[in-house]
Description:
Largest sheet: 7 strands, mixed
CATH architecture of the domain at 3-202 and 345-368: 3-Layer(aba) Sandwich
Order of helices and strands: EHEHEHEHEHEEHEEHHHHH
CATH superfamily of the domain at 3-202 and 345-368: Vaccinia Virus protein VP39
CATH class of the domain at 3-202 and 345-368: Alpha Beta
Number of strands: 9
Structural class: alpha/beta
Number of helices: 11
Distance between the termini: 18 Å
Shape: elongated
Helix content: 25-40%
Amino acid sequence: MKKVIDLFCGAGGLSSGLKRAGFTIAVGVDIDPQALETYQNNFHRARTICGDIVDITGTTLREQARLRPGDHEFLLAGCPPCQGFSSIGKRDANDAKNRLVFEYVRLIRELQPNFILMENVPGMAHSVGKKIFQRVIRELSNDYHIDEDTLNAADYGVPQHRKRLVLHGVRNNVYQQLLDILDVREINFLPLPGYSMDGGEGKKPWISAWEAIKDLPAIAAGESLHEVIPNHVARSLSETNLKRLAAVRDNGGNRRGIAPAYELECHKKEKVSYTDTYGIMEPDRPAPTMTAGCTFISKGRFGHPTQNRGLSMREAARLQSFADDFVFYGSLTSMAMQIGNAVPPRLAEASGKVIYKYMNIYERYMREHD
């Protein structure tokens, strides 16, 4: 049994992918009670801790995960809050939330797991987050071999363009042992992509947005088929927004081509940010990045490809690569935030398979030579 402790777990996108990869989810930690309600209802055997990570100790996590004293054969995973590093955030490196990554580092030191996994936005390794990330790498490198890179979720079977910073680490002594076992000079712990835009070089083509959601029943804005398909509910739209969205659809899917009568005052300015708002999702390409506003047509290019409404919760979840039996709980706003903030499970699964493979090699060798 290969256990996972998932810090900043949210609704459970990372845990979902790691479970698919073969891991046993032992503990999920988050400060959001609504996200944890979703987590608890989807990972029945996992224990959950609702609280501020600052107040949580390694001892508590070890007890909740039912790990033996001195047991390091588990995976500590985490996705520290990233609003200050995100391209749509404030980009403030001094934001207190951005410092929570060092709480993750603290718990790594306290627990000393053999394997670690961290996922974040690319901005953490560049722009304003660069100094923080470089410090994290320096501190972790004292005890861990680190591989990190920015990966596009579409390259791993997620029907969505979503670039994420992925960091995998293995304790230095374990890494050296693996090199000896496999008789190699180095190991890359990052997953290799299995998809590409055109599907060349033995890869599969990217999965399009339409391919991911086309079989879901049609619904109108404000309608729900939750009893048949969990979370298949779309937000209501005003009559004006219904007309506005129809006009956008009739003019190529981009709001910049619609008649002035349907333009918002803020959109009439010469220089306007977020030009994808009120746009129609392109059906033959992976979806744009799902955000916490992924079911609002005013928050991005989140208009349904063929129906005059925004995305339903289930459609947004599918575009994040959640399975249909993963059910979200809470208000519509909370569910959209849980979905948009989640790690795409298929990307997490790709990470998990690599870590699981080398964890298995190491554990088998240690058992045979005990």
